[in-house]
């Protein structure tokens, strides 16, 4: 039987007879002997077949890449000059006594140490792709992260409780995956978008501290970092204040980073209000690795003659902000044009700038297409506010606040990373004091910024009706290097407040009753104050591994067309299956009954 | 903030000021003071409101059952004669300083210590049902079991890898739950019946040891102990022999029972072959708590004059067996009639018996309706084979072997439990050497007894075609107290053997290619020898907790009509949702296209 993993052999085992199982990573004839690099999940070891051992040698001659072998041999030191210190086993080799071929292999479509394989081929041959050391490392890290989270939560009194997968439409607002019921013809289960309502019910049940690492589903058009099914670290607690929940959760994330990747995150995490984050970074998930900040100019641009600035400043939802790029004067015209095209993605109609060549020369020392539209006073104000220095470049955004924030917020991150302003390492923070609602302009109604079960901030209960735009919530997001990795809130635990929020959201009593009657009822039977959070496990892992795609931290992911190239799911089904469910396929939408 | 859990207060905290959060379990006025039993997940503590503390007292007067309170008070010893040793906190009480009502409650539909509530009410108000201490204990035990399993597997090098929920039809043969795809109109995902193929692919990928505690789905008509979604401890390993896998897995179950319920299971578990289990117990999942065994009579009944016995003995698929009930002579005529009706469920046409009153009296000492059909020799043989004693009762089964086994096997367990033959405690065992195939008489073909990926026993590869009925497999079941709690096998890792098995099962190349092409392909790229097992977590918990139903160890179960009485899932969906999926509802099966 196996005595050791290939990748775990070193000089400690010198002269020992060992038995290994593994895959032929590479085989080469060299100077009359055959070298086989044998690979298992722990790594590689070099084995060597001497022609003196005729059986093993003849066997080795027939061996090809990715054959599965059982090798018994003796560990010996590699000769001087052949030591490979990039391998754990690089100081030793195994002199083969016996080889047994446990299975052969066709020539694989790619080599296991090739990192330039098209993703379509990787996904089609996923079982081979997962042999590659990078993918092995990603999935093993995933296991370590899950386990570290479980150990932390278990030690802190959290109980892992499984909630249903076959359930009812949940209120996250994304599209549900539906599952037709055979027993109850014409009725459908929905796969959960999150266990939100169940975890709240578990608090009503008095479990006090719940967690679950669980699969969630959203039938959305996929973006690069999304999957139809994704994994959430789902957490809920009773009787804790917002601050207590946040402190416990950042402790968990700190302990995770320490134990899994030996990184010490700051304690406590910095906190920004939503308003501060938008003002300084144009984003509610700022990448704090980049020190550049947006600088407010709206207040001082109301009187300027430059129409673009003045009109934006005068609008109630307008904003003018500057982004100073220290020593950005070196940016070429081409680069500035590219950035102008980049901000256009976010709806910005242009990208005004001032190059600060020599402050001492006054207006003469500046270079800008908009200079001619600005008074000397206005220019002075800008230079003072932005604290401009010789060699700097100042970009401007002037439009609806939403456009300015998104455009300059994204530009800040892009320039920060492209031009070396980004610090390395991990920069977590909390964003707090989110508004309860945001305006859905298309549907002309208020929408919940988090979800409809989020508690208003203390004292804001009465603003739900009168000033819904100003009401703040007890929601909090954990942000890491510009990505939201967790979002949570204190929940509403009183039925009267919950009804008010539904009202503000224009959810009728009938609709609330139909969708959430069990929650509304549960709130009347001694619901405790409670709150929680959900972390996106896939995203955390994508960041931790530095993977290019979320698909690299998922064993069997779907493509952006929501297909599995390995199993060819989704597939067709036969008539009997559909008959049993009493459903028919329409040729297209127009033929649907 | 909370200083302690209610149920965790004892004399260690005497004279300390503590703060508790919890639910009003019961409130009573007594001698001018108000007693409130406050309950949280750890248990109860008695709190006491003195009228001297006017604010707290007035608040306490308005309090009703299941209100949520924050109570601060001082721990003191209970007066002599009021100590309640059934409670952990029963030697102390908390003299209330302040009460805060965090939430009120309507009068709940049942009391939290009522154990006689209809299941429909319990499931409708599941959030209240889960407050009951028994349900709290069940779900906390479930958490402990999951965590103990994870810790054991982590320590033994197993990697937790998540496999897809949105996948393709799996080959377990039960009905799939289907999920229509919106992006790929007319195509369907299937929810997994198990991760069988994915875990085999992970072995091909070289992960070596995989596990997952995962949800599986079967759209079957529900029996008492089944749920549409259930949880499996799913395990796979590479390069281990059947014996090594079994030893590792029983070690896990032993460690689980020791750590979670302080029970020491035997080491090693006893093993029975399938043939032995059927011969001795009439079942491949024998309840070893009952020492009674079936006694073979087929060989000695071929010549008897009694037609019922002779015909059964002469049939190639017939069997005659006896079940001796020591001192069973005390069974009444009524009881024997009831058992006769019981075995009829399994198809037995009667239940012959001999009462052994006094052996010394010869035939005179026996009492039986069939005595007159049997020769003295035949009776002697029976008495010798069964080792009958004065006072015993001997039951007989004579029919097709399947009927005899099922009828006497079930009778053995029923009488064993009803008449005190059962030992207490836990009796695990392995059943091994299962046949590869069983005959599907209706469809007139061979079916896989485990699943089509199970390896034949060494040397039985060539019997797949020639003697499919005799070919044994490397499958193994773990049985505990008469329930199968886990089933597994060494898998086929060579394509040629896999093709032979498909052939024996009459699965055409086209069908195999369509359903399992990715597996067949993977087997050609260096698939290692591998095998694994899957345990039914819900069933293990049902047994560990002594619950009456699997529904008592699942937080939010479905009824036998596959409905959730709490959320009213499955529910109706709107036309837009169906249009997006391009599916239509048929009125009934006949209208399906």
Automatic annotation (TrEMBL), chains A, B:
This is Aspartate--tRNA(Asp/Asn) ligase. L-aspartate binds at residues 172, 218, 450, 491. It is an enzyme of class 6 (ligase). The keyword Metal-binding does not apply. Residues 139-557 form the Aminoacyl-transfer RNA synthetases class-II family profile domain. ATP binds at residues 218-220, 227, 484, 536-539. It catalyses: tRNA(Asx) + L-aspartate + ATP = L-aspartyl-tRNA(Asx) + AMP + diphosphate. Belongs to the class-II aminoacyl-tRNA synthetase family. Type 1 subfamily. The record marks 30, 81 as: Important for tRNA non-discrimination. The lineage of its organism: Bacteria, Pseudomonadati, Pseudomonadota, Betaproteobacteria, Nitrosomonadales. NCBIfam families: aspS_bact, PRK00476.1. It is found in: Cytoplasm. Pfam families: GAD (PF02938), tRNA-synt_2 (PF00152), tRNA_anti-codon (PF01336). GO terms for biological process: aspartyl-tRNA aminoacylation. It comes from Nitrosomonas cryotolerans ATCC 49181.
């Amino acid at each position: 039987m196996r005595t050791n993993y290939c990748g775990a052999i070193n000089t400690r085992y010198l002269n020992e007879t060992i038995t290994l199982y593994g895959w032929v990573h590479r085989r080469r004839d060299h100077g009359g002997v055959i070298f086989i690099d044998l690979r298992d999940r722990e790594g590689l070891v070099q084995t060597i077949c001497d022609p003196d051992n005729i059986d093993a040698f003849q066997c080795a001659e027939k061996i090809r890449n990715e054959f599965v072998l059982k090798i018994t041999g003796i560990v010996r030191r590699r000769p001087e000059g052949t030591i490979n210190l990039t391998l754990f086993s690089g100081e030793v080799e195994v002199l083969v006594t016996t080889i047994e071929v446990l299975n052969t292999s066709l020539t694989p479509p790619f080599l296991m140490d090739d990192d330039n394989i098209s993703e379509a081929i990787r996904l089609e041959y996923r079982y081979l792709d997962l042999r590659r050391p990078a993918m092995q490392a990603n999935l093993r890290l995933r296991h370590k992260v899950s386990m570290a989270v479980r150990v932390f939560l278990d030690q802190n009194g959290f109980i892992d409780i499984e909630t249903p997968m076959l359930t009812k439409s949940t209120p996250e607002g994304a599209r549900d995956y539906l599952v037709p019921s055979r027993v109850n013809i014409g009725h459908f289960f929905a796969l959960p978008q999150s266990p939100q309502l169940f975890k709240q019910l578990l608090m009503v049940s008095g479990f006090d501290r719940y967690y679950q690492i669980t699969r969630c589903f959203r039938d959305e058009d996929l973006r690069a970092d999304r999957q139809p099914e994704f994994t959430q670290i789902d957490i809920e607690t009773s009787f804790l204040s917002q601050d207590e929940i946040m402190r416990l959760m950042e402790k968990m994330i700190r302990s995770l980073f320490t134990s899994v990747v030996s990184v010490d995150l700051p304690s406590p995490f910095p906190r920004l209000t939503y308003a501060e984050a938008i003002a300084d970074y144009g984003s509610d998930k700022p990448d704090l690795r980049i020190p550049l900040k947006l600088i407010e100019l709206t207040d001082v641009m109301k009187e300027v003659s430059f129409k673009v600035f003045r009109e934006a400043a005068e609008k109630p939802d307008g904003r003018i902000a500057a982004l100073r790029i220290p020593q950005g004067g070196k940016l070429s015209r081409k680069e500035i044009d590219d950035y102008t095209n980049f901000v256009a993605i976010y709806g910005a109609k242009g990208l005004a700038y001032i190059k600060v060549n020599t402050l001492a020369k006054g207006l003469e020392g500046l270079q800008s297409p908009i200079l001619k539209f600005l008074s000397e006073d206005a220019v002075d104000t800008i230079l003072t506010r932005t604290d401009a220095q010789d060699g700097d470049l100042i970009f401007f955004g002037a439009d609806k606040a939403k456009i300015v924030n998104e455009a300059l917020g994204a530009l800040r991150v892009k320039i920060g990373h492209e031009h070396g302003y980004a610090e390395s390492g991990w920069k977590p923070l909390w964003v707090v004091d989110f508004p309860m609602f945001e305006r859905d302009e298309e549907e002309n109604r208020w929408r919940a910024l988090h979800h409809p079960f989020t508690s208003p901030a203390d004292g804001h209960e009465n603003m739900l009706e009168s000033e819904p735009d100003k009401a703040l919530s007890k929601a909090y997001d954990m942000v890491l290097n510009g990505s939201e990795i967790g979002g949570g809130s204190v929940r509403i635990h009183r039925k009267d407040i919950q009804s008010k929020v539904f009202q503000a959201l224009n959810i009728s009593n009938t609709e609330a009753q139909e969708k959430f009657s069990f929650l509304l009822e549960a709130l009347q039977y001694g619901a405790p104050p409670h709150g929680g959070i959900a972390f996106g496990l896939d995203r955390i892992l994508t960041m931790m591994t530095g993977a290019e795609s979320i698909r690299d931290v998922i064993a069997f992911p779907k493509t952006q067309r929501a297909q599995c190239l390995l199993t060819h799911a989704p597939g067709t089904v036969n008539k009997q299956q559909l008959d049993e469910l009493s459903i028919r396929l329409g040729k297209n939408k127009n033929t649907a009954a």
